[in-house]
Amino acid sequence: MKIRKISVKNFRGIKELEWCLPTEDIFCLIGKGDSTKSSILEAIRYVFYPQWNLHFSDSDFYMCNVEESIVIEVSIGELVEEFCSLTKYGHCLRGWDAKKLVLHAEPDDHLERILTVRLTVSKDLEPKWQVVSDSKPEGIDFKTVDRNKVSVGLIGAYSEKQLSWANGTALAKLTEAQSLNELLAKTSRTARSSLDADRAFTLKNFDAAAVKSQEVAKELGVPVHDAYKAHLDINSINLKVGGLALHDGEIPLRQLGLGSRRMLLCGIQKMGLEDGHVTLFDEVEFGLEPYRITRLIKHVRDDRRGQYFLTTHSPIVLREFTVRELYIVHNKAGMVQIISAADESLKEHEVQGKIRLNAEAFLAKKIVVCEGATEVGFLRGFDDHQIELGKDSFAYYGVELLDAKGGAKVKALAKALKSLCYDVSVLADADAPDQFSPADEAELIELEIPVVVWSEKQSLEERAIQDLPWSAIQASLKLAQTEFAFPVRDHVLARLTVKMELDKSTDNWVDSANLRKAIGIAAKKSEWFKSMSKGDLWFKAIAPAWKTAEFAKKDLAIKLNKFWAWVEHV
Predict the structure, then answer these.
(1) Worst-scoring range by mean pLDDT, 291-300, 430-439, 507-516, 547-556?
(2) Which of 92, 252, 517, 551 has its CA at a distance of 20 to 30 angstroms from the CA of residue 564?
(3) Percent of the chain with pLDDT over 70
(4) Per-residue pLDDT tens digits for 29-42
(5) Both 319 and 467 in a single domain?
C-alpha cells in the first residue's frame, strides 16, 4: 500500500498542510531546519501507529492550543483486497486521479481505489482512528491490526527497538506466523527447570533463608503446604517479546553504530514485507560516511515494493537524489507548502544542475546569490561585524551565501531559487553589463528579488575604495601586501591614469581621486581579495569605517544596511 495524499492540521509546528503526491516511490524532504520535515514523518507514522497506546501531550498541538483538534488524514492506494471488502472498509472507498492529483468521492473504473484514514486528537488527548469518506463522514473505526498491515516503519535517531521482536517491528512481522508469546513462556519454564536442577550448589544460601522463613511462618500460623524454597517467579521474570533481539553471535545488534543500525533496519524493512511497506527515514545521513550514503540510496531506489519518505540536511544526500525525488518544505506561520523540484514550470531553470552545484543553498531559508567568492567572503565579514554590534547572525535568520561563480550565472540561479519559493537576494558587480546588465537587474526586481549593485557601474572593490575613509584604504593595501603577498605598488602604478610617484611604503601615500581609482581597479583586476577567506579578512580590516558618520552616507554603507534590513525581515 502506498500514500497518495496527506492532510495535516494543528499538529506540532504545522497549522495546515495539504500535499497531493505524484505516483512516485521516493520523497526526500529538504529545506531549512524547523520547517516541520520531521513532523510530517511523525504525522504519517501516527496515522498508522501499530499499537493502541499512542500518547499525546499539549505540546503536540499547534502552538499548544488544545481547543483546535489535531486532524491528520492520509489517503492510501494499491490496497490489499481485504481492505476493499464490504465487510471491512469497502463502503468507504474513494477514487484517486493520479494524473490530475485529485481526490474523488467515489471510485470509478479510470480511478485508483483509495481509503482515507483519519487520526483525530481532541483536548482529552485520546487518539481516534477512522476510515472516512464523503458517504460516511462519521467514519468506520480503523483497527490496530489493520494499521499494522499498512507496514509503516520509522527509522529515526533512536531505533534500537526495531532490532527486536517488539510489537509492530519489521522483525516481528517476519515471524508473525509463530507465537512469540508461547515461545517466551516456554523459555521462562526452562529457566526454572535449569535453576532447580543445580539447586544444591547455586541456591544453597537462598534455600537456607527459605527454611528460616518457613519456621517463622509456622510460628505465626501461616500454612505451609509443602516446603519453602527459592525459585523463579515466572511472572516476575517478565520475558517480553521486545526482549528477543537480533544478535551477532553473543553481541546484540543494538550495540552497532548508529549508521550501521539504520542501514540494517532499512534492509530488514525491504526484505520482509511481501505486501510492500512505507519507510520513514529521518535525517538519512546520520552516522553514515559518504560512500555508505551512496550505497543506502541505491538500495532504496532498487526497492520496487516500498515507498520512502526521507528528510536530510546533507548536501551529499541532495547530490545523490534527482529532482524527481526532491521536495522543498516551506513553513510560514504554520502554513506548510511542499514544492516538487521537478515541477513542470521549473524546466527552464535547469534545477537539477543547480542543486548539485549549490546543494547547501537548498537547505536554507534565505539565499543570497553572490557574483563571486569575494562577495561571499565580504558578507561573511559583514555578518561577524553585525554580531559584534549585538545583532543576530545570518545563521539565526537561515541565510546562506551562494557563490554563483560569475555574473553571467547570477540571474538564472536567482530565478530558479525564487521559483522554488525561497527568499532570494542578489549581490553583484555593475562593471560588466555583458555579464549582469541593468536589464537583468530590472527583471529580478520585477520578480521581487532585491538586488544590490554598486553605483557608477563599479565592482565591489572599486566602490569600496571610492567610499572608504583613507585609513581603511591603507589597511586594505597593507592586508594585500603583507598578508597576501601581492606587489601592491607595482599593481597600482600600472593602473594610474595620471602618472605619479609612489613611495615604496603605502603608509606614505597621499589620498587623491586619481590614486583611489587606480587602487580600486588594481584590487579588482589583480584579484587581491578574490576568495572567501580573503574577502572575509578584507572586511575585518575595514570594519572600523562603519563607526564614522561620513562613511554611513556612502553608497557602500547605505546598500549594505539596506541589505541587512532584508536579512532581518521575517
Answers:
(1) 291-300
(2) 517
(3) 85
(4) 998 888 899 999 99
(5) no
The mean pLDDT value for 454-459 works out to 94
The span from the CA of 135 to the CA of 383, in Å, is 58
Q: Could you tell me if residue 338 is inside a domain? A: no
Sheet holding 423-427, edge to edge: 399-403, 366-370, 423-427, 451-452
DSSP 371-440: SSHHHHHHHHHHHHHHHHTTPPPTTTTTEEEEE-SSGGGHHHHHHHHHHTT-EEEEE--SS-TTTS-HHH
Which range (284-298, 423-437, 451-465, 530-544) has the least confidence? 284-298
74 and 132 part of one domain:
yes
Q: Are residues 477 and 418 in the same domain?
A: no
Domain span holding position 417: 345-455
Please give the pLDDT value at position 329. Answer: 94
pLDDT band at 200 (very low <50, low <70, confident <90, very high): confident
Confidence of residue 184 (pLDDT cuts 50, 70, 90): low
pLDDT tier, 347 (very low <50, low <70, confident <90, very high otherwise): low
Average pLDDT over residues 230-239: 62
**CA distance linking residue 425 with residue 567, whole number of Å:** 9
- Does 232 lie in the same domain as 154? no
- CB burial string 306-328: b at 16+ within 10 A, e below: bbbbbbbbbbbbbebbebebbbb
Please tell me whether residue 154 adopts helix, strand or coil conformation.
Answer: strand
| Residues 449, 469 within the same domain | no
How many other CB atoms are found less than 10 A from the CB of residue 523?
29
- Give the rounded distance of the alpha carbon of 399 from its chain centre: 16
Rounded to the nearest integer, the mean pLDDT of the chain is 87
Contact (Cβ atoms closer than 8 angstroms) between residue 188 and residue 239: yes
Statement to judge: residues 299 and 409 lie in one domain: no
- The rounded distance, in Å, linking the Cα atoms of 490 and 45 is 67
What does the alpha-carbon distance between residue 2 and residue 440 come to, in Å, rounded to a whole number?
45
Query: 78-113 burial by CB neighbour count: b if 16+ within 10 A, else e?
Result: bbeeebeeeebbbebbbbbeeeeeebeeebeeebbb
450 in the same domain as 483 = no
The residue count for the chain: 570
CA distance 387 to 543: 12
As for how many domains the chain has, the answer is 4
Supply the CATH number for residue 51's domain.
3.40.50.300
pLDDT digits (tens, 9 = 90+) for 165-183: 666 565 666 665 455 666 6
Cβ atoms of 404 and 413 closer than 8 Å: yes
- Domain membership flag for residue 442: yes
Q: Is 501 left (phi over 0), alpha (psi -120 to 50) or beta?
A: beta
Q: Are residues 430 and 515 in the same domain?
A: no
